[in-house]
Amino acid sequence: MSGRAVLDDSDAAASGSDAPRAIFVRFLKFGALAWGGPAAQIAMIKRECVEQEGWVDEETFTKTLAVYQVLPGPEAHELCVYFGRIRGGKRGALLAGLGFMLPGFLLMLILSVLYVEANLGVCPMKCVRSG
Question: Can you tell me the mean pLDDT for 21-27?
Fold first, then answer.
């Protein structure tokens, strides 16, 4: 497998590009709706970006996913950055990655604030110190 074939997005990029806002919103939707772990996220990304939009063909998607599965890090996020780069260059890659991560980040931030405000973290620390 040639690394150039997997990482060369010139053919797909030649087919068009999207506005930065459209890229961000599309991948924000993936981050908000793709619950069920990486298998569900990758299936959703594949369905929309490969089967419906035709940004890359099935073979390119499969080879790209295989590369991302070998690399450290979450492959669903890496796929979002890859497709964002195809559709909007470096800015598109950044916006796709941010859009995909934002829902999970906000959920964890809200839950963390609620945890601290409810003083759920205080009791275990008091028990350790006094015990």
Answer: 96
Residue 108: inside a domain, yes or no?
no
Can you give the three-state secondary structure of 64-125, one letter per residue? Answer: HHHHHHHCCCCHHHHHHHHHHHHHHHHHHHHHHHHHHHHHHHHHHHHHHHHHHHCCCCHHHH
Q: What is the average pLDDT across 104-121?
A: 88
**Looking at the 3D structure of the chain, how many domains does it have?**
1
pLDDT for the residue 129: 55
Q: Residue 57 carries which DSSP code? A: -
What angle, 0 to 180 degrees and rounded to 10, lies between the N-to-C axes of helices 20-33 and 38-45?
140
d(CA 82, CA 66) in angstroms, rounded, equals: 13
Which token pair is 23? 């890229």
